[in-house]
Write a structure and sequence with these properties.
Length: 515
């Protein structure tokens, strides 16, 4: 038998040896990194438009090439002109580096560390700083570092756990059924949707996300929604907010930080409207929780409060869910309808899958149905590849890095044009086609998808916190529509316009024809 002192000595010696080995390995890695940096090309050699004193690259960007309303086109233009890495210098903004190589993108994400930092929406943060007294945390979209992580850690488990979302299937399904009836009520004699159909999609998205954020039905789909109704005010304010943020954040230097502009004033006004209405419903949700019968199911709102998030921070979280949920999910679902309408064979294949699990047109979904509907999920994923909610992702590198053979110093804004990359033949066979089969297990393809090319919900700790909600909303509405209707498209091609998020660039004149 070994003595206790011998065992302790052995452990001590082993630990010391492990520490020495770890130190040697770390030193070797640092030396290798140092050599990589030393041997890399300089930052100034990164391809890009000429940068002049005072104005940087602004002249070429804003007078010739930069289209703030079609950011996926702009990113495509620069990638094709300069290659997998290029840089832009705009006075008043961090130097921007666009990287369109998935191997390098993986390196960027892997270097994130505990607190990934990405660009925040500065205009919205300014509004909350100036107008919302007593706010302790400006929300996940507007914070970074430990402040961001403190909030994220408390909402991650309730929001991202798929089991928590499954209990909302019955109520979300009811909203989707109401949307089907709304489609029937507003179509014309040719079964075609009016030019205002996107607003109907906003109503569906708001009604769906309110079930999770507030545990309430707002009544958005009950007949005509008056312009002065609370839901329509929230929708109008959200659409205006995203459009104004797009112009203020991306359309030139941020002079509004020095001289408050007319558009910044407009943003504050529409946010005032959104905050006023949403706070009323959030306060009602809190009152409902106080009087909730014992033994009732725990809501997402309760779960977040139970994990220690303050009431003020929970209010911000609920507001962000409502605002983000209106625009992104509705536009993304619209593109799902479009791709299915343009690919009748894929639409019919999906309908056949739905009928296997739900033989009757009015059959109700069970949680296991969503688990088993592989082709449904493949269709949604393929639509997100071609028409994602946003044109790309961004990060600030928190240390000096060598990217594509060039030195990229700490603090640059690195943009990754995932929407553009997702259309390239080198990453997807027949990349321009809607082929959901490419996402099925065992799919026969010469080119396997690289996981860092298509990232519609982001990656890592800063992945979209509303992913589970959005996916379930889209799965349910797609199922309920295809159970009873065929979708057709007889107009010109639909593309993305950039208004904070990707939105359809023309009216959504779908035809929904009863089966």
């Amino acid at each position: 038998m070994f003595s206790k002192s011998f065992a302790q000595s052995l452990i001590k010696n082993y630990t010391s040896e492990w520490q020495r080995s770890a130190f040697v390995a770390t030193q070797a890695l640092q030396k290798e990194t140092s050599l990589e940096w030393k041997n890399a090309k300089s930052f100034e050699e990164i391809p890009g438009n000429p940068a002049y004193p005072l104005i940087g690259s602004s002249y070429e960007i804003f007078t010739k090439e930069f289209d703030v309303g079609r950011m996926h086109w702009t990113q495509k233009k620069y990638a094709e002109k300069f290659g997998p890495i290029c840089r832009f210098v705009i006075p008043g903004l961090p130097t921007m580096v666009q990287v369109s190589d998935p191997t390098e993108i993986e390196k960027i994400y892997r270097a994130d560390g505990k607190f990934p930092e990405r660009p925040i929406i500065e205009t919205l943060k300014k509004y909350r700083e100036d107008k919302m007294d007593g706010v302790e945390n400006f929300g996940l979209l507007l914070t970074s570092g430990n402040e961001w992580w403190t909030m994220r850690a408390k909402v991650q488990q309730p929001m991202m756990k798929s089991q928590n979302m499954l209990k909302y299937i019955p109520t979300m399904e009811t909203v989707s059924v109401e949307m089907v009836e709304r489609i029937r009520a507003i179509r014309d004699q040719n079964n075609e949707m009016p030019d205002t159909f996107l607003n109907e999609m906003f109503k569906w998205a708001l009604e769906s996300v309110a079930l999770v954020a507030l545990d309430v039905k707002l009544g958005c789909l009950q007949g005509h929604l008056p312009a002065d109704s609370d839901p329509q005010k929230m929708i109008d304010a959200t659409v205006s907010t995203f459009a104004l943020m797009q112009e203020l954040e991306f359309n030139g230097p941020h002079f509004w930080k020095i001289f408050p502009s007319k558009k910044l004033k407009q943003l504050f006004e529409v946010q005032d409207s959104f905050v006023e209405v949403s706070l009323k419903h959030i306060n009602n949700a809190f009152d409902k929780l106080k009087n909730k019968p014992e033994g009732s199911d725990v809501t997402i709102l309760e779960s977040i409060l139970d994990r220690g998030l303050s009431i003020k921070d929970t209010v911000i979280m609920a507001m962000d869910l409502l605002m983000a949920g209106i625009d992104t999910t509705s536009c993304t679902q619209s593109f799902i309808f479009y791709h299915l309408a343009r690919n009748a064979d894929k639409q019919e294949k999906l309908r056949e899958e739905i009928r296997r699990f739900l033989p009757k047109p009015d059959a109700k979904l069970k949680p296991e149905n969503l688990t088993d509907m592989k082709y449904l999920k493949a269709c949604v994923k393929e639509s997100l590849r071609l028409s994602p909610a946003v044109f790309g992702n961004s990060r600030y590198n928190n240390k000096d890095m060598v990217i594509c053979g060039y030195q990229v110093p700490k603090g640059c804004m690195i943009t990754m044009p995932n929407q553009y990359m997702s259309t390239l033949e080198c990453y997807y066979k027949e990349a321009d086609k809607f082929l959901p089969e490419r996402w099925l297990k065992g799919a026969d393809s010469d080119v396997k998808p690289n996981p860092y090319v298509t990232l519609p919900f982001g990656f890592g700790p800063r992945m979209c916190i509303g992913r589970r909600i959005a996916e379930q909303e889209m799965w349910l509405l797609t199922v309920k529509v295809l159970q009873q209707m065929k979708i057709e498209w007889h107009c010109e091609e639909l593309d993305c316009a950039t208004r904070g998020v990707n939105t359809p660039d023309r009216p959504l004149n779908f035809r929904f024809i009863d089966l």
